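#struct-queue
[09:14] JT: dropping the first one here, sequence first, then the structure tokens:
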Amino acid sequence: MIEEMIDSYSKKIVNHPIKLLIILTVSSILIATGASNIENVDQNNEDFLPDTVESVEAFDVIGAEFGQGEGGTTYTVMLESSPSYANSTEIRDVRDPELLRYIETISNDIESIDDVVTVNSAADLVESPASKREAIKQLQESGQASQYISEDYSFTILRISTTDISSDEQDELASRIRTSVERNDKPAGIEAGYTGQPFINQAFQRESQSTQGQTSLLSIIGVFLVVVLLFRSVINGLTSLSALIFGIITGIGIFGWLGFNLSPATSGSISMGMGIAIDFGIQTVSRYKDEREKYEIEKAVSEMIKGVIKPMTIALIAAIIGFTALSFGRITFLSELGTLLTLTTLFAYIGALTLIPILLVLYDQRISKIIPDNIYQKILGEIKQ
């Protein structure tokens, strides 16, 4: 029964490869549009555990009832003396009245933002000093200058406290604080820096997105080079890689349609799943090459599928069991990681049994007359000469 279905399936692939390729391509594009629903989100410590954990549940209840204490979130802006030229008029001592006036300006600007409770800085300790000497005197008399100014007077800080706000609101406020500091002209020789958990989260998010793209690209390039060397054929290398690419595109699409998002903890999942996914492509292409030496195209496709479907299915089931097991743990991000790995591996399996046979048939029927399979050896031979 199964063998008859495979024979019938193989016949359809051989007789209608272009129609099937179009159907498969359109379907994968529609599925892949789900990726537009995916957002890269920040991940807090409480995101690593489910709400049913006693301490997390208590934290949520207390936070909802009483907030997270005074200020909720604290942002810090550092203004540092960084003169570009020797013997210039650039500020070298942050107790300079010009800088203190600038700090007062941006403090008032930031304090007007909703959800900001207080803005504390060295400017609060002085009152319109006319000269640097007067500013130093007022700062010394306040007895609090060391809270905002470094011992060598090279930098000073602003502390910004807010109400209890969500992670998205924290990120938005961090951007508004940065904008407020940058849109007011800083005195010559002053550089601004930013710290506090929201600013650190933004930096971590940027680095995670950059790393995700780099690792995925490097992984695909590395895998491609390996399969090209394995088959000694660029065509066969690209064909085996197609199942992997199909699995990534459609798997991420379904992940988006299911309403999941990517976080720093799940951003490396694509690279992790490539090992199993590329094996499906290697098995099908290798088996087809062997069968093609003995049979015509239709028979070779049929025998190829019969030969690889059992070991590939066993490998798929074993992988899914392993990935699904991640969902049974108490660490929440592992569940999302397991879901994404399961989807990409499943669709790589589907691609190996649908897309790859179609591409192999199209190559043998049409493309091989234009681009021979031994083009790799020809190029290699010319290089050696």
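[09:21] JT: and here's the second one, same format:
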Amino acid sequence: IKLNYVRHTASWNIINRTLLSTELFYEEADESGGFLNNGEGEHLHRYGGALTLGYQLTRHVTLGARYQYIQKDSDVAFRDYKQNRVSLDATYSF
């Protein structure tokens, strides 16, 4: 796989104990082929971003919520997709 990409991440402390993070990315890739596409290569573009909101509940416990969007455009039939992902997490730090 030949891959070129650009990523940007930024984080802000927006209010007391609350963190907002943003992510953006773009990828362009050439894949040489494989079993599933009869040895023919694939040229693709993937791009997307994410928003994460974190809250430090106590000194050791952090709660988080995240939304992520990814879109892939491919020159191989049926290999395009759009993905929406939501996740919640809790972290305990010693």
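[09:30] RK: nice, looked through the second one.
[09:31] RK: Residues 2-92 form one domain.
[09:31] JT: good to know. The radius of gyration is 18 Å.
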